Amino acid sequence: MAPIPRGSTVAVTGSAGFIGGWVVRGLLDKGYRVRACVRDVNDVAKTDFLRAMPGYASGRLTLHSADLDQAGCFDEVFAGCQGVCHVSHVSDYDDDDYMRGVCAHVINSINQSNSVNRVVVTSSIAAILSEADLQELVRRPVIYEDRYPDEASPKRTPERGQGYSIGKVTLERMFTEAAEASGRWDCIRVCPADNVGPILSAHQKDKGPWQHNIEMMLLGEYFQTPAYRPWMTVDVRDDAECHIRLLENVSVQNGDRYIAWSTDTRNVEDICASIDRLLPELGYATPEVTDPFPERIQAREQELRDIWAQCELRNDRIRGVTGMTFRSLDESIRDCVESLLQVAKIKPVVRDGFGERI
Ligand SMILES: NC(=O)c1ccc[n+]([C@@H]2O[C@H](COP(=O)([O-])OP(=O)(O)OC[C@H]3O[C@@H](n4cnc5c(N)ncnc54)[C@H](OP(=O)(O)O)[C@@H]3O)[C@@H](O)[C@H]2O)c1
Fold first, then answer.
1. Average pLDDT, stretch 148-168?
2. Handedness of CA 325, 331, 335, 336 (dihedral sign)
3. How far apart, in Å, are the Cα atoms of 46 and each of 51, 212, 328, 352?
């Protein structure tokens, strides 16, 4: 199927979010027309940053209320669009019927549009690997696009925290199959890793969760990552750029799947320690990590860290197809911290002698 024409119209679901906001910004910068779908255009705390973007004043960027829980909410928005970036979260990943219902109505709006020829859906690294059974990472340590979590595992249930991973695999399959059945559009799947980088609006500090974790570090208390997993990161700006390059790409085909990550990994304590190293002017008082896990998990800390350490993260496919180069994690952390201070007015814990800047 054809890539979207340069300068054509793209709808972005989840535009008020961390990744969606950067997708909107990147599309505008490249000259596209953008229909930014948000839950409620009147929620100014979440949408004014979009109105401040170049393109809004001229009408090249328009905002549209669309509550994903209402079937048909995208019918009018998608009509006339050549591309869709379906970035939005849903309200409940644990409810399979609900998840399938939302996918079905978004697909229906795409089919009805008679104009969309490429859809990029935002899945997750959680649809590639899961933390339900770490032994499975020992058996299959190469983390690349053809990998899925062990779907036969009895631990793979919403009750055991796997709803998000299951829901994202469902999303990917439903969109790929619907595109195949339609023959008029194709679905390209992006599986982002842990997004770090600058927020565009204060409300985004509470989301993520990775930028929220950095906010907590700045405020003086942060927590160990579940199963002692190191952060496996991508800069949010690079993630958005991957989405856009895949909309434009002439080589990709329906169902292609790409992990968006730099392959940088870092333990949460080292992320926190990076703040003072990268921004010594701040005088940041680096706190200790809080480990909330029960003793039986804490006793396995080294074993679990060793399992993560033997994983091999690959991004050959996205780099090969799109020519992407990824920012360093240091750059992402620095810019995330500065945006939390500047945009969200976070007041970090600082050492004696460091205070308010004039
Ligand atoms: N951030 C990461 O590290 C990461 C990693 C892998 C994959 N992803 C995927 O990337 C996508 C975007 O993540 P993000 O970090 O940008 O999340 P985010 O900042 O929370 O943005 C998600 C957006 O989805 C909207 N949304 C949720 N339910 C909705 C509904 N029922 N109707 C309309 N809008 C709804 C939210 O609106 P409200 O604010 O009004 O709820 C929010 O603006 C998600 O699909 C996520 O699974 C993210």
1. 92
2. positive
3. 10, 16, 28, 35
| pLDDT beyond 60 at 323 | yes
* Residue nearest to ligand 1 atom 41, measured at CA: 39
E strand segments, 226-339: 231-235, 257-260, 265-266, 289-290, 312-313
Per-residue pLDDT tens digits for 27-66: 999 999 999 999 999 999 999 999 999 899 999 999 999 9
**Ligand 1 and 259: CB distance under 6 A:** no
| Token pair in block for residue 300 | 């396995």
Token readout for 305 is 């860290």
**What is the reported pLDDT for 132?**
81
Residue 93 · residue 99 · CB < 8 Å: yes
Contact 295, 124 (CB under 8 A): no
208-220 residue pLDDT tens: 899 999 999 999 9
Check pocket membership of 91 for ligand 1, CB cut-off 6 A. yes
Q: How far, in Å, from the CA of 333 to the mean position of ligand 1?
A: 20
Domain boundaries, the chain: 9-342
Whether the CB of 332 sits within 6 Å of ligand 1? no
Q: Is residue 23 in contact with ligand 1, taking CB distance under 6 Å?
A: no
Q: Is 261 in the pocket of ligand 1 (CB under 6 A)?
A: no
**Which CATH superfamily does the domain covering 9-342 fall into?**
NAD(P)-binding Rossmann-like Domain (3.40.50.720)
**Per-residue pLDDT, 245:** 98
Whether pTM > 0.85 for this model: the answer is: yes
d(CA 59, CA 40): 18
